[in-house]
Automatic annotation (TrEMBL):
One of its GO terms (biological process) is DNA transposition. GO terms for molecular function: DNA binding; transposase activity. This is Transposase. It comes from Arsukibacterium ikkense. It comes from the Bacteria. Pfam families: Y1_Tnp (PF01797).
């Protein structure tokens, strides 16, 4: 999942951002599975074709949107509060939860009572079949049913309950701190593949362990 901070004032701003995002995603071969544009930030669920895809996409569409925004509102400078934030997630255990997390943002913010009421998210595409060219369904989304109607019905059913607080906290923490979102086995796989620590070191015992000392 990717999160970035920026600003939207008018309906045209949301449309411009989605247009720039669509072009950048196609250029750098990044599949967009879910999105939400809030008034001051965005969330994206994506699958890149290579390790550089997400960074290049975010840089390209961010540059275009800032140029558009500054020209439209007669200003200068950046809209970003630092670099975008992202996490690698365990699709088997978290993918559909992250779909829900993203599309329920406007509900949690008390902007609407149901995700279907918010026009600037992917919910209407994933749950109601609205044509949104930006979207590419994930393989696990396709497994929700054999037909479009079956998949959309199963997807809507996922929104009948609330996301557990522990999952909300795990998603937020992993995204904000660029940790891996998944179980220990998945984290170990990512660490072996990338050579990067997927989560913070534990306190006390971990720092005093032989393994920790041996890695210094």
């Amino acid at each position: 999942m990717v999160a970035a901070t920026l600003t939207f004032y008018d309906e045209a701003d949301y449309k411009a951002y989605l247009s720039f995002l669509k072009d950048a995603a196609a250029r750098y071969q990044v599949a967009i599975h879910a999105f939400v544009l809030m008034t001051n930030h965005v969330h994206l669920l994506v699958t890149p074709s290579d390790a550089q895809g997400v960074g290049r996409m975010m840089q390209a569409q961010g540059r275009k949107y800032v140029q558009y925004f500054n020209y439209t509102y007669g200003r200068s400078g950046t809209l970003w509060e630092g670099r975008y934030k992202s996490t690698v997630e365990d699709a088997d255990n978290y993918l559909l939860t992250v779909y829900r997390y993203i599309e329920l943002n406007p509900v949690r913010a008390n902007m609407v009572s149901h995700a279907a009421e918010y026009p600037w998210s992917s919910y209407r595409g994933n749950a109601l079949g609205k044509a949104i060219q930006l979207l590419t369904p994930h393989a696990l989304y396709w497994q929700l049913g054999k037909t479009d109607n079956e998949r959309q019905s199963a997807y809507r059913a996922l929104f009948s309950g609330q996301i557990p607080e522990r999952d909300l906290a795990a998603i937020r923490q992993a995204t904000n701190k660029a940790w891996v979102l998944g179980d220990e086995r998945f984290k170990a796989q990512i660490a072996a593949r990338t050579g990067r620590r997927p989560a913070p070191l534990g306190r006390g015992g971990d720092r005093k362990s032989a393994n920790f000392r041996g890695n210094q």
